[in-house]
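Design review, sub-item: ligand-bound model
Attendees: FS, YL, KQ
YL presented the inputs for the zinc ion complex:
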Amino acid sequence: MKSTHGDEPPSQDRILRSFEAFPIDLLKIYPRSFCSKNGLWYGLIRTSQGRRLAVVGERSHVLGDLFLGNCYHRSSSLKLCDPSAENTECLMDLFPYTKPVSLRNAPMTIGMGDRLGLATPGHIRAIRKFQTHPVLAQQSIKENVQTGRNFTEVIRDAAWAVFQENYQGGYGADGDHLKSIWEVKSALDAGVSMITLDLSEKIDLEALRQPAEWVDRKFKEEIDEGDAKVTFHLFLDKAFTWKSKEGEFSIRFDEEGVKRNALLFYKALDFTEEVYEWIRLRRKSRSSVDFEISLDGASFPTSPENHFFFALELSHRGVHIQSLAPRFFENFRSVVDLRRDRETFRRQFYHHVLIAEDYDYKISVHSENNPFQLLEQLEELSKGALHLKTSGTSWLEAMRLVALVHPLLYREMHSFALSEWNEASEADRVTADLTRIPKLDGLSDEDLPSLLDQEDCRQLLHITYAALLNAKNSFEEYLFRERLYQTLTRYEEDYWSMLEERIEGHLSILGLKKREEEQPAAIYRRNDTAT
Ligand code: ZN
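KQ shared the predicted structure:
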């Protein structure tokens, strides 16, 4: 690899040949990652030690390069660097597109959680076909605890995957469902470009359930007289009307309605304002952070009235958000019910969109609470401004891969999941009926992957993922975790193809527009900024 200017990128064969001179056990190269910069070649390879960044070039250049790694010198020199925290910082400095950025100017955005840190290349391969921008790192604190990761590692895994796939479109990193300033801080310290504040614990549901006398008394006790005056002035006896091609819809609050909404949200509003101010002061001179409000974790459906009350109050307090996730249904229900509720969902969704449009943010839909059957052609209904979050896909496709290539491991995991069902289902809103899942004994190995198309089985594996990842035997050894990671790594290309297909299917259902020209799928399209 003599060329240092990137004008004539080397072929895959030539890359492979150039590694022959060195005493390394090269298992695989990731051709899309290879590029030249500042007189050196950079690219990802896999050795028996794992995935490594290879830096190739003249000895003096390689020695002057900032990545940390082991050097080999022949007629040219090679340095192999692991994807450590320090090297990730170097990567982000040298290739700035590997660093998460705010996506506030992108109207259509898709968040895809990569729980195990191995799925992102598949996500990228799907989304680069569409007119959208991805949030590639997206984990909640709960998910991080369950998977034994932290935000720094989550972003690190995304950054290397972005480099591997040569994706230069810009991606976001979301600290998802955060519930305290401390959680927000730990996500920001790691470098997230988006915060999703989960208000479920700050919402007082009694305000919706209790009789009018309780509401009157509580309102007097809890709401400051001055604030009450302002709130009544903002809402009482006014008609708020939205006109659209679908017709007109209005919201009007009577005194009881104002009081109920105020009590429902006052702690949530104070907390949102506090976090917003805290982020604003902290990030003053730094890049912007996208701010999402999540109401979808609270166990009541967010009506357009609730949403509007919250939005106007927020705006009155000078708080600007980029997206808000309402809750559309009270419970996670079966697909059959949801089909019946499709029209209700679409009408409500559209009202939420009209409200959000007035305050210049997007509606965010979290697919874990809203099965994909509902989301058909949502892009159009959202007037082209939507954030969609999916989180369980990478896990379920991982299980499908295991069923396909390692039936024995799948059978063990499936049986274990069944034994964990009672405990796991208590903590989660589920409707699965285990008797509808075909018994493993009666299934041949070839039949196993189709279990991942069975709704009850999907829920079973979905809610037991933490138990599966963390299960240990009496010697404190993981029962499945290591074999699962080994399988996913060994068959990574198959895993990425499956994810690509699955996500592409989701985005097509959503009605997302395809790109005229697929973003560089070809190898070596990265420009050399050197010389
Ligand atoms: Zn959510």
